[in-house]
Design a protein that fits this description.
Blueprint (H helix, E strand, L loop, with lengths): L10 H10 L4 E2 L2 H4 L16 E3 L4 H13 L4 E4 L16 E4 L6 E5 L4 E4 L5 H8 L4 E2 L12 H7 L6 H4 L6 E7 L5 E4 L12 H5 L8 E8 L1 E2 L3 E9 L2 H13 L6 E6 H9 L12 E9 L1 H17 L4 E4 L3 H12 L1 H4 L6 E4 L9 H15 L3 E5 L8 E5 L6 H18 L18 H4 L2 H14 L28
Parallel strand pairs: 2-4, 3-4
Antiparallel strand pairs: 1-2, 5-6, 6-10, 7-11, 8-9, 8-10, 12-14, 12-15, 13-14, 13-17, 16-18, 17-18
Helix pairs in contact: 1-3, 8-10, 13-14
The chain binds flavin-adenine dinucleotide.
Amino acid sequence: MRKRPIATNDPHIQALARIVGEQAILYRKEDLMAYDCDGFTVHRHLPRAVVFPNSTEQVAAVVKYCHEHDLPFLARGAGTGLSGGAIPLNGEVVISLTRMKRLLHVDLENRRAVVEPGFVNLKLTNSVAHRGYYYAPDPSSQYCCTIGGNVAENAGGAHCLKYGVTTNHILGLEVVLPNGEVIEIGGNGVPDPPGYDLLGLLTGSEGTLGIVTKITVRLLKNPEAKQTVLAYFDEVEDASQTVSDIISAGIVPAALEMMDQTAIEAVEAAAFPVGHPKDIAALLLIEVDGISAGIDEQINDILTICRRHHVREVKVAQSEEERARWWANRKTGFGAMGAISPDYLVQDGVIPRSRLPEVLREIADISRKYGLRIANIFHAGDGNLHPLVLFDASKPGETERALAAGSECLKACAAVGGSITGEHGVGIEKKEEMRFIFTDEEILAQTAIRDVFNPKNLLNAGKLFPTPGRCVETKMPSTVK
Ligand SMILES: Cc1cc2nc3c(=O)[nH]c(=O)nc-3n(C[C@H](O)[C@H](O)[C@H](O)COP(=O)(O)OP(=O)(O)OC[C@H]3O[C@@H](n4cnc5c(N)ncnc54)[C@H](O)[C@@H]3O)c2cc1C
């Protein structure tokens, strides 16, 4: 962090520095450049300043100041978001929560923990694993993304098929509202707390309704046993049909992941190769967990279904080390694209599982139409597709082609009754695509809710809903794009 004394005449920077301390604010261009985008690198905008509060009181004071002086502002966790949610489109004051990273309380008797928003996802499981517990939502970015960012995006992960996404594991929140007031929401485990379900509303609101400063999460007991299967297929259709049949057979795997040939080429060229054959069309990584008694039976059923669909090779992990290698290979899948392409765009559509083969065929057609390779790595069990459009931003027109191809993939998902996002959020990236699934009236109903919490629309404006003038959104302050 910067050690130089404040050297600017900007009265807002000086006022913010008085709140968080001179060592906890960035405002020089060279320092701000690291905050001009998140994991969605297509758009870049410099913030006005980045502040690093270390308490709810400091967050509230910064927010109150911005509110009173009409300064746009937004929250930022680790900046791993893939839809541009943390990009300071309007020269926002970025409120980085990375200094608020304490594990405040662990209550194993009631299976819960309280964390600050900057606490990194994987550290939670690592903190309680020795006592036989874990935190279930496991985005592939879990080694660096924050729980505050997970709440804002309602993050998912490989093991969310059986255990549910972030919203199913959040019991309570402390939130700084856009005017600087602090509220607590949630029933801390009460099954049906009175009043509106604000916890459900805030979770997944993409940082547009408030800034989360404290989170009570559910902890789960480690499953007694788990087994992991790796299955290689010569035809994508066979792999897709296997996914469908496993779920139809009443088996609910903890995770059911799929990678196609291009994705396999990338992961084998990256940091954690495991020796997948490069000529297969698709692989499935399937994990079942629970009490020891039923696991062998479930594995046998899964092996039978794989064989019924002409699996080329199928194997069960023989050790925890082998299982961990398979997962490391899968979880670094997005980053692995860097091994085969200068740039890539991650899409995040959802489809009914039964439509998997036809949508994958359509994505292949889109790839041919735009002359761009598209890899597919995805949570097949819950129909959450991640087409990765590979492109080279240094080639004229290629970024625009990649964006158009990505948008068409989402249209294909929406057309079969699916959705434009399963876990990465809408952000900037998919705000126009909201029209694929919502009518104007439905979007207006949502912006009306936002306006109750965020009436000046200073908090994270220009995200989540279609651009003013191009659709229904009308309420934008003059300072905001
Ligand atoms: C390699 C890779 C793999 C990924 N895999 C997955 C995956 O499997 N599943 C998945 O769901 N996502 C995945 N993601 C996307 C991303 O990691 C998640 O969206 C994550 O939840 C973002 O957390 P963050 O701390 O980085 O948040 P940021 O990117 O900093 O912010 C994301 C949004 O949350 C808001 N926000 C952040 N903190 C707060 C807060 N305290 N209060 C209110 N709003 C806040 C921001 O304003 C922004 O709108 C992946 C990303 C990468 C780069």
